[in-house]
Write a structure and sequence with these properties.
The chain is α+β, with helices and mostly antiparallel strands. The protein folds into two domains: 195 residues; 146 residues, no CATH class. It is built from nine helices and eight strands. The protein has an eight-stranded antiparallel sheet, with helices on one face.
Length: 405
């Protein structure tokens, strides 16, 4: 087992150190941003939130929604939407209405209307136009360049557009290598444990073998489950990225589907259906999430679905999308949605991302993932260091085999 274990260490050791360092760097930046309560406009926070709520033309939650006020209790949503739609129709009668939503702009209830030629804000109380400078971002996934985004590209080996996703095979191979090291290391540990029990030394932790070997063994034992979780979720993301790259490569450029980020998948709204869509959305949301305040209520058509979207008024806003025809909550992957090339869909990929980063379990999950990454870094680096120490001792005795039994 040690012979095979050493071969695996040589094959993927440096690769694991690289992946662990870049992953730890990102996780450290995420944790620092959270514990210091950085604003949503911070590049690290933007990168952390990017794509979790869908493609560019699907996502609703944007930077202002992390600090804006919730819509007031007792607001007649349907009446406010109908009034605002009527004002927009009067100003731009020939423009198709792509979506309409209610949100707070400062202390005003505002309606955002998107027509064929742009977006406009109206003060619901007065019917007057609000400055375009107060419009929320049109692309919620847009981020300001920063170190966190750069580190993500290094972590995925995406140094340029050509390598993006295709280089994820290195992450997948690294995960396979870690699995191999964990299996061979575990077998070796169990064999040593059986031998020690025969001589009446049944302790799970022991100090033989020197500092590096002792702590390598201890960290491996304590962190086994955490590292396995980190590696498996990382491999699942790599598989998803590779599947997307393969689908893009296989599809002839001329026949590729519309870009899910930039293409328009909306259908114009009619004034008559707006109140019905709003009421259906509110009924479905309040049934599923009673007592939770609302920051944004949007109605639209997307890829043939009649949708109502609610952005919640919690400290960390959540986006919920409902089919207004039947009240069903929709995921990020539904039949007829734009093709995103991910083999298991956009929703699956983003959910695995949350598991991999730990944030699906909140801040405590983020800390556990940081510890997992630190353990992986220590095990990789200490394994390489122990190999180097042993090789030098053997080389001094004239034994220069790269790997030995």
């Amino acid at each position: 087992m040690l012979y095979v274990h050493r071969w695996a260490t040589l094959a993927v050791g440096l690769l694991l150190v690289y992946i662990a360092v870049t992953g730890l760097w990102m996780q450290s930046m995420d944790l620092f941003a959270q514990v210091t309560h950085q604003p949503a406009s911070n590049p690290t926070v933007q990168e952390f939130h990017q794509h979790l709520n869908g493609t560019d033309n699907y996502a609703v939650v944007s930077d202002p929604d992390y600090t804006s006020r919730a819509l007031p209790d007792g607001l007649n949503y349907a009446a406010a939407l109908v009034k605002s739609a009527s004002i927009a129709r009067g100003e731009f009668p020939a423009a198709p209405m792509r979506l309409i939503e209610l949100r707070m702009i400062g202390d005003k209830v505002a309606a955002l209307v998107k027509t064929g030629d742009g977006r406009r804000l109206y003060d619901v109380a007065t019917g007057g136009r609000l400055p375009d400078t107060q419009l929320p971002p049109d692309n919620p996934n847009k981020i300001n360049p920063g170190l966190r985004a750069e580190m993500k590209s290094w972590h995925k080996f995406a140094f340029n557009k050509f390598l993006l996703q295709k280089a994820s095979i290195l992450n997948l191979l690294a995960g396979i290598g870690v699995g191999f090291l964990m299996v061979t290391g575990s077998i070796h540990y169990v064999r040593l444990l059986k031998v020690r029990r025969k001589i009446r030394k049944p302790q799970l932790f022991w100090s033989a073998g020197g500092f590096w070997r002792k702590f390598h063994r201890w960290v491996a034992l304590v962190s086994f489950v955490l590292v396995a979780y980190l590696v498996v979720t990382g491999m699942l993301m790599a598989v998803s990225d590779l599947g997307a790259a393969y689908a893009e490569w296989k599809s002839p450029r001329a026949s590729r589907p519309k870009n899910p980020d930039t293409a328009d998948f909306s259908t114009p709204l009619s004034d008559a259906e707006i109140p019905t869509m709003a009421q259906a959305t509110l009924a479905a949301f309040r049934s599923a999430y009673p007592g939770i305040p609302i920051r944004v209520l949007r109605v639209r058509y997307f890829a043939g679905y009649s949708q109502g979207i609610v952005v919640t008024g919690q400290a960390a806003p959540e986006q919920h999308v409902f089919d207004t025809r039947n009240g069903r909550e929709l995921s990020l992957t539904e039949p007829g949605y734009p093709v995103t090339n991910f083999p298991f869909g956009w929703q699956w990929h983003q959910t695995v991302k949350k598991f991999h980063r730990g944030d699906i379990f909140g801040l405590s999950g983020n800390w556990l993932e940081w510890l997992s990454g630190a353990a992986l870094l220590y095990l990789s680096a200490s394994g390489l260091w122990m190999y180097w120490q042993m090789w030098r001792r053997r080389a001094g005795a004239g034994k220069r085999d790269i790997v030995w039994r």
